[in-house]
Amino acid sequence: MSLSFTAEELRFRDEVRAFIAARLSPELRRASSLNVSFFSDPDIVAPWQRALHERGWVAPGWPREHGGPGWTATQRWIFESECAAAGAPQLSPMGIKMVGPVLMRFGTSEQKKFYLPRILSGEDRWCQGYSEPGSGSDLASLKTRAVRRGDHYVVNGTKIWTTHAHFANRMFALVRTSDEPRQQDGISFLLIDMASPGITIRPIMMISGDHDVNQVFFDEVEVPHANLVGEEGRGWTCGKYLLEFERGGGINSPKLRYALEKVRGLANSGLSYKAIMLQEIATKLSEIELDVQTLEFLELQVLSALQRGENPGPVSSVLKLRASEIHQAISRVGVEMIGQNTLVEETRRPLHALKDRPLIPEEVLSVVPRHLNGRANTIFGGSSEIQRDIIAKQVLGL
Amino acid sequence: MDLTPSEAQQMLRHSAQRFIAEHCEPAARRDAMQDPTGFKRENWRKFADLGWLGLPFSEEIGGFGGGPVEIAILMEEFGRGLATEPYLSTVLLAGALVAECGTEEQKKDVVAAIIGGDRLLSFAHYETDARSGLCAVRTVVEGDDFSLTLHGRKIAVLDATSADIHLVSARLPDAQGGGLALFLVPKDAAGVRLRDAPRLGGGRVAELTFEQVRLPPHARLGTSACVLPAIEAVVDRAIAALGAEAAGLMRAMFDATLDYTKVRKQFGRPLAANQVIRHRLADMYVACEEARAMAARAALLVGADTDSTQRSLAASGAKVKIGRCARNVAEQAVQLHGAMGVTDELDLGLYFKRLLVFEALFGSVDHHLQRHAELFGNSRAE
Fold this sequence. Notes:
The structure holds two protein chains of two kinds.
Chain A: H1 7-23, H2 26-33, H3 42-55, H4 73-85, H5 93-106, H6 109-121, E1 126-129, E2 145-149, E3 152-160, E4 170-176, E5 187-193, E6 199-205, E7 211-224, E8 228-229, H7 235-249, H8 253-267, H9 279-307, H10 315-338, H11 362-365, H12 367-374, H13 384-395
Parallel strand pairs in A: 1-4
Antiparallel strand pairs in A: 2-3, 3-7, 4-5, 5-8, 6-7
Chain B: H1 7-23, H2 26-34, H3 41-50, H4 68-81, H5 87-101, H6 104-115, E1 121-124, E2 140-143, E3 148-158, E4 165-171, E5 180-186, E6 192-198, E7 204-215, H7 228-263, E8 265-266, E9 269-270, H8 275-301, H9 308-336, H10 348-360, H11 365-381
């Protein structure tokens, strides 16, 4: 057992660092650090994705045959850690980490050949059509219906909480193609062109003032049958596979460490009246540091298992549960530190491009919206209650 | 980076599990706790035969060259099995200090006797309470090159009643720098008084009084002007080891609780059919996994190759994180067992008490949180 990197791994780390130093501009870094949403706006992401694409580093987890770098688990860890530590923009996971792996596993060769390169280049921007107004945690009760008509499916219904639907040109969606006794049966996985006639997008504003999510309506939307992924009626399998990636496939602790470092920096600065001098803040930061270290170690154990060729199993629910709670603890301590500056509400976006000088510095302004948005962490991607259900059922055998 | 245990480490775990299964079943455990020494000497012999008593010592002094990772493996299994052998006091505390600070001759004599299972040692250090840190020593030693006199009182001495030698910390005279030194004090030396009591959850604990105890000069361990850094290092490693033991204790409590909630029926169905119970079990499971991860992490970071700040951060961090998880799991385990959980008819209470001991030993969670925050801040400021 060893936590240290080999000489080869250290060389790789230097290579990643050199790349970041050369390609991540201070402006981009600043814009990214003032981003308060889970997903960065496309104008922050696009230049960074282009730089990564030139180097073949857009999708750390993809195998070489699909245009990934074919890295080992440790290399992936190093890459993610270095990007997070440098405050690099986070690429949208919806193509790279969600629909991409599903296509590799269940897609036809035509689908792979067409879609995968466009995910890497950033030409396609994906959104996820899962939740519906009546189907949140009980996702399998979804009602958006796709009826086969000739070469097409005709889709009617609505999806909600669709992050970046207003930027996306494609959606992967779970739709009902038949009614079966078991509601998980009869669901299919469809790829939908967002420019199709009959699609309407209604923005939903968040309590932070951010516009990240939307409701999407489908009115007689035609989707070619060729856009079905996997078998008709077996979409739940694809959907579950994807959710596993959404929850545990990621490496979360480096991002949490970056967020914690940012809060620690704030605690050390005059912007929080040097809150680090307060014992309760210093000990709180230590407790969160320990939580991050613990999660980091759990993630490294998963990586080691992957490296041995083992399936890490349902531990992804444990990681999602803890990562989301730690994320919230970090943003909450940020709010505690800025004191009465919490009172200032700023709903204009993006914060890095405000025209006039705000009442308080942008770093402080970003604290409250980040905290407000952070409340969603324990709700999306399977709420904490669902994660506990999964742990009880799949891990504890209850 | 690879967290896969080596083959030797896996074998060590298997042999510990086998030992626990064969010699630590509940009846044998209760029986051992009734022994005036708190454990069975024949088990200690087996520890020696299995090589565990020499595990952390270097090969030059007859040990097997294991490190904190191997110790954590053993301790976790000891925790699961609620073993009461004085491994912590003899091997991890006193033995480690002799190996760290002793002269060549002392190492040869004392460590060899430990490895062979022939001699037991206690570590007599604390005087007031654990909150005051490791430097609050008022026991004094006086004397010259020919004879020493030890005077003072020690509390919370683990397993002193079975020890052949007490390793006692005392302050040197101002003329000699006023630093801390350690002394090997035979149990039957004149002026040594022992008051012994059962220890919560198994084992023994004692108060030791030293009244003008005369010692030969070679009773002093090594010659260093101050052994405090060595004590800090050894205690940090002991905390990491105890963290692993706590992870084992927690896992056993959790497993028992999971089993119980599956079979105990109320309102016509098992307790575990209720979501409120299922979610609590999920949280307990997460806490167990976190504690285990933190113990493994600490084991990797308290070794001799880590600088003292990083080592102390790892130990204090483990104490805090595992301490929090332990309290949660222990209290919920009792709660979910209902009234049975507070009876002595189950072993659950023994585990509960052992986790209280974990919290209390070598400084509370709050003490270590404070220490972590200070060290962390300082390590960043540098």
